Amino acid sequence: MNSAATRAQAQDLLDFIDAGPSPWHAVHECERRLQAAGFSRLDEAARWALTPGGRYYTTRGGSSLIAFIVGTDASAAAGMTLIGAHTDSPGLRLKPQPAAEASGMLRLGVEVYGNPLLATFADRDLALAGRVNVRAGDGFASRLLRFEEPLLRLPNLAIHMNREANESGLKFNKQTELPLLLGVAANGAEAEARFRQLLADRLDADPADLLTWELLAWDTQKSAFWGGDGEFIAAGRLDNLASCHAALSALLAAPASRGTCALALFDHEEAGSESAIGAGGSFVADVVARLAAAAGLDAEDQRRMLAQSFFISADMAHACHPNFPAAYEPDHHALVNAGPVIKHNANQRYSTSAASAARFMACCARAGVPCQQYVHRTDLGCGSTIGPIVAARLGIASVDVGAPLWAMHSIRESAGTLDHAYMIAALTAAFAA
Predict the structure, then answer these.
(1) CA–CA separation, 48 vs 59, rounded Å?
(2) Does the predicted TM-score (pTM) go above 0.85?
(3) For residue 50, how many other CB atoms are within 10 A of its CB?
(4) Are 419 and 231 in contact (CB under 8 A)?
């Protein structure tokens, strides 16, 4: 089933995920790959000078990124193809003053970010990753921080004290039962000081110079293939770094074309996208406006250009779980290793229309890959994506697609090896249209 090329693409995804334990690290890895491919970095605070066929990218907040290849045709009729995904994943994030002692242990307080499967964070080898703002002169500098070794743990309560766990499910009180264990409390050593020293030692900085941080708990277990023939992959943050990687791979393979090809990776999707760096902010509209200005398009021509454009919202899709068939709409099972999934919802939780679905089907046909269609059970609430948000902000035709995924929002998710190659091929065909 899996060719050497397919496995190589999946391995590159696993390497990409392992390099990106936080949204800031993920964007840093995207920047590294873009620069290696000849893309030039643009500063949002500077004036832009764009040339037809030029390859550029810009970031906002360190965790959102937009990259693009300027179209060779400056007219409004050329349009653009935009693929969007998100860099964040649900999980546990440290509070501003996290360190405290309880029952002889040093613990770190956390907030729940997004909607993770909390039980999956128990009994895992956790570490910290993110960024720390360190005093520099009269200002500060943001520094990436990543602990590779297991540092934290959320031990389960033994079955002897939680007899109903296997019948009623494992549940955690978000305030009192989620603090992560860091170490044994030391006599005379303040918890805050010990925590600051831990970060300072890793950053080679003075503890007093650590101003603020955005840090999350991540699972240090490496991403891996599994299955009898390695036909599946297991990793943290497949939702949605798999889509980020597929879209980035497609853009890096795209030649200069008549219309602009663009990639938008947003933070804060799991928290609702309403932020300056999220899909609900102005980031993508600001870049579109600057692209239009560089092409000499006035306000009306920019709207004409958007009317000729297409947006693909690439997020993960719910793969049918063979142990829980009743959880799925019976006539719309999304199967693993059976191709990209087009996601539909009559109430616009997904942005797909009949026309945009047909357009993506054509991309799959040109790429020679199968595709599937998915609808959530009518009696279950349906999640949403950046698709409806970006489509509404730009007034652009849009489709929601994704690779099938098991255990969405678990600390360790699973997907198909072949599906990732299918998704890269479909998105590459979309840029070549």
Answers:
(1) 14
(2) yes
(3) 17
(4) no
